[in-house]
Amino acid sequence: MSTYLSLLKTPGVARIIGAQLVARFPFGMLSLAFLVHIEHVHHSYGAAGLVLATTSVGQAIAGPLTSRWMGHWGMRPVLILTSLICATAVGTVALVIMPVAAYMAVGFLAGLSTPPIQPAVRTIYPKMVNSRQLTPLFSLDASAQELIWVLGPVITTFLAFQVSTQSAIFVALAFLVGGGAWFVASPEVGRVRIPRSRRRIGAVLLRRAVFLATVTGFLLIGACAAIEAGIVATFGESGSQAGIILGIFAIGSLIGGLMLGHRPIGPWALTVRMLGIAVGMALAMASLNFWWLALTLLIAGVGIAPALAVMFAIVSASVKFSETAEAYGWIGTGQLIGAALGSAAAGLMIDRFQAPGAFWVATGFATVGVIVPAVLVRWHPDLRGKDPSPIPDTEPVAIQPS
Q1: Could you give the domains of the chain?
Q2: For the segment 264-284, what is each residue's pLDDT rounded down to a tens digit?
Q3: Which of 90, 93, 117, 226 has its CA 20 to 30 Å from the CA of residue 26?
């Protein structure tokens, strides 16, 4: 713990972690808030699902695009513009009764204008700490973000069912505006300038570590999405047991991030962490008993934040500084696609085989998530004793003839 206490004492670190958590908090609320609100308006979960799908498509497109814009126009202009558009779209969903097609269009706009907070902050981190502190900082960030997924759905559910569906969206909107303003106003956002990338969009995926992290992140989040669907199917949407187990799953990730975040990252680091996740999910298939699922998903959860931290670190060490934001944008897009496909596959299996089908899907995703980094281990940088900071950008310097 001393490593993390030392990190939090570094000037600006605690502030930037807090600001980005608050700014990203709405995205642990909005999916569920949109789902409940659209169903309340149109009395159809199918309609709500269509709106969520178009929102996710918008977010997936936005990931690398808006991240790359930060190198062209600067972090603050992009963050302010996207925040304003996103806030307007989210407020429109809450206030205006529309046909489903219109909700889909506005949801797509909300997704497309999602502020690139995550790529921005992970681009800033290497400029705030020394190379020895960077890997633990990525781990602390990955662990802290679990608070979003533990508290966000709880707050949303309470507001939506005890107050109104609109109130749940408005609270998320308050976090979006307030947290976004706090993050944009942070001095670190103004001090760090991302150089303009000279390569075409998408070229960063040709870097092996970025491709490896994107594919593995897709599989990891796909497995988590399937597990969440399976837990809900097991205990029912109204049962508190589902929320408790999902909370334990997230707490396992928090514990794992704090326990393993300071460990050196060797070439097998991602494989080992994904193996722990796969084993926990495979064990969960043995029984749908509450206590068994709580134990096995606690085990599975321990690997999640450390796996994410490894992905962030190997990407940071493998790309030029001008490419970092776009690289993290692609990773985010991969995770969004994984969440969508994991949920969809789990839903189909639940319809056919009931709740156990979702656990089979999750274990399948996680198992492939072990195989991919094991097969591509040569693509995984060995960061033991090395600086995981981004590669500096260099360019020719014009020399005037004497």
Answers
A1: 15-192 (1.20.1250.20), 201-390 (1.20.1250.20)
A2: 899 999 999 999 999 999 999
A3: 226
